[in-house]
């Protein structure tokens, strides 16, 4: 089972019938590599991100235009395609990993299993968080790290100070490294702040950001099996703390409404 820790928020995976996990193709182990002195521009980040996302789109089940997941995401996302000066595009991957990620080229990918457990408000909080990573150029940093880690670089001249053109399998390795890259705590909390402000500015329910993290915390706490869901692994120990930070801001802004005890849904959510 591939563990995806890229942005996100998320973290985990659920078993559900007929679901696939995200496919990274034949991506091999990545190797660390030096490449000192590499010039890595915004354009490089966009180009490599686009190549990585194209690769992932090709190797994963993308929900079609009439798919209920696509329809739901359209409803939530379409008005934010030109958010904050960014040109964003989005798709749903019908995979069982619970995740979402964004790339420097403005691509946002939301996984169907995440949509299954999140309400619309919670998904908007995740979307806002991902947009925050793009806006803050965290995704550029992650892409550069992925590029540098990729064995692909071995093939490029070690003396080269420019980004090399990559073959498809090299792009696959890079995409793998990109999904394995994690943002720093600071980047995560800045993206959380961006998400909160995004929710607030658009008059969405900011408590959704809180409950989203509470759900993530539940997913990462081992132990009690949730009916209908089987937890595979955990990572994000900070989810509860991140939820509390959101609660504090909401209280200060007079936007806090106690959601009561947050639990994981036992049936798939559709709104
Ligand atoms: Zn993040």
From TrEMBL:
Cofactor binding note of this UniProt entry: Binds 1 zinc ion per subunit.
Region Disordered, residue ranges: 249-271
UniProt-recorded Gene Ontology molecular function terms: metal ion binding; metalloendopeptidase activity
Ubl conjugation listed as a keyword: no
Biological processes annotated in GO: proteolysis involved in protein catabolic process
GO cellular component terms attached to this protein's record: membrane
Cofactor(s) needed for function: Zn(2+)
Keywords: Hydrolase, Metal-binding, Metalloprotease, Protease, Zinc
Location of the Peptidase M48 domain: 90-249
Similarity field: Belongs to the peptidase M48 family.
Database matches in PANTHER family: METALLOENDOPEPTIDASE OMA1, METALLOPROTEASE YCAL
Protein name: Putative metalloprotease
């Amino acid at each position: 089972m591939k563990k995806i820790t890229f942005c996100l928020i998320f973290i985990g995976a659920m078993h559900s019938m007929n679901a696939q996990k995200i496919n990274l193709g034949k991506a091999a182990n990545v190797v660390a590599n030096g490449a000192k002195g590499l010039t890595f521009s915004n354009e490089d980040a966009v180009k490599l991100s686009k190549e990585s996302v194209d690769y992932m789109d090709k190797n994963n089940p993308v929900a079609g235009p009439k798919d209920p997941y696509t329809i739901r995401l359209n409803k939530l996302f379409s008005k934010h395609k030109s958010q904050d000066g960014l040109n964003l595009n989005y798709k749903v991957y019908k995979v069982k990993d619970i995740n979402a990620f964004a790339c420097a080229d403005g691509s946002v990918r939301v996984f169907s299993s995440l949509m299954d457990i999140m309400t619309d408000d919670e998904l908007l909080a995740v979307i806002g968080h991902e947009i925050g990573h793009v806006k803050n150029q965290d995704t550029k940093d992650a892409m550069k790290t992925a590029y540098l880690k990729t064995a692909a670089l071995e093939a490029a001249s070690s003396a080269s100070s420019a980004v090399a053109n990559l073959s498809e399998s090299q792009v696959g390795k890079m995409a793998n490294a990109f999904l394995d890259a994690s943002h720093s705590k600071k980047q995560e909390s800045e993206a959380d702040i961006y998400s909160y402000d995004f929710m607030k500015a658009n008059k969405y329910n900011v408590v959704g950001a809180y409950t989203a993290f509470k759900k993530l915390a539940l997913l990462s706490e081992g132990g009690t099996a949730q009916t209908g869901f089987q937890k595979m692994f955990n990572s994000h120990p900070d989810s509860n703390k991140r939820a509390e930070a959101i609660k504090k801001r909401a209280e200060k802004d007079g936007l806090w409404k106690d959601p009561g005890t947050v639990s994981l849904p036992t049936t798939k959510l559709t709104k």
